[in-house]
Amino acid sequence: MASSKQNLSDLLREEVKQEATDKPETKTQPKATKKVELPAQPSATALSRMTKAQLLEHIKLLQNQQPSSATTPDPQAEKIEAKNQELAKQVKALEDKISTQEKAIADAEKTIKTLKTDSAEKTKLEKELIKQQGLVEKLYAQVQVLEAETTKPEPEPEPVNEERTIEEDRALVLARISSYQANLQFPSQPASSIPEEDIGWFD
Fold first, then answer.
1. What is the number of H-type helices and E-type strands within the chain?
2. I need a surface site. Which of 26, 81, 111, 137 has the fewest CB within 10 A?
């Protein structure tokens, strides 16, 4: 009985040993390193259209995807660093361009404000000029009226008809007759052949 138990124990050991021998050895495989996929390099046109925030986000993404191991030089890491430096230069250039454009916009707004002020002042002066021109024309018309009144000839006084007496009328008539007789000249008569005795005398 004891012998059979010993044989059974030996068989079990042999079976366990056989299973251990038949089981394939499993070696611990090294963990595969995750391949870092870089984002596609945007074109120069796409970079120029990006905003400042988008460019900074792109640089941050590239920096986060760099390999953590820095013991050995990695060409991929150097390539990423070169891209980062290039993007940083482009960001700086875009920032300068944006600053220049913002300054130009501020200057343009200031110029527009000045032009609006000048235009309002010009309109005000034009209205005042039109008002002054109307006043000058009115004063000129008044001066012409005064000049016309000044140069107008004075009317001759109408003769005053005074009643004369009969004696005054008679004296005036006699004066006129005397003046007429004094101015009257008779033509010279030719010599007559009739003797004076035959002519006779008239009363």
1. 6, 0
2. 26
The answer to whether residue 132 is domain-embedded is no
The b/e string for 25-63 (b: 16+ C-beta within 10 A; e otherwise) is eeeeeeeeeeeeeeeeeeeeeebeebeeeebeebbeebe
Domain, as residue range, for 61: 40-119
Number of domains in the chain: 1
Q: Strand locations in 57-118, DSSP E?
A: none
pLDDT digits (tens, 9 = 90+) for 62-97: 777 655 544 556 778 888 888 888 888 888 888 888
125 falls within a domain: no
**pLDDT per residue as tens digits for the range 127-161:** 888 988 888 888 888 888 888 877 766 666 665 56
Q: Which residue has the tokens 């916009």?
A: 105
| Ramachandran angles phi, psi of 115, nearest 5° | -65, -40
The answer to whether 84 and 62 have CB atoms below 8 angstroms apart is yes
Tokens of 180: 């007429």
Structure tokens at 143: 């001066």
- Alpha helices per DSSP H over 23-74: 44-49, 52-64
What's the predicted TM-score (pTM) here? Answer: 0.31
Q: Contact, 94 vs 52, CB < 8 A?
A: yes
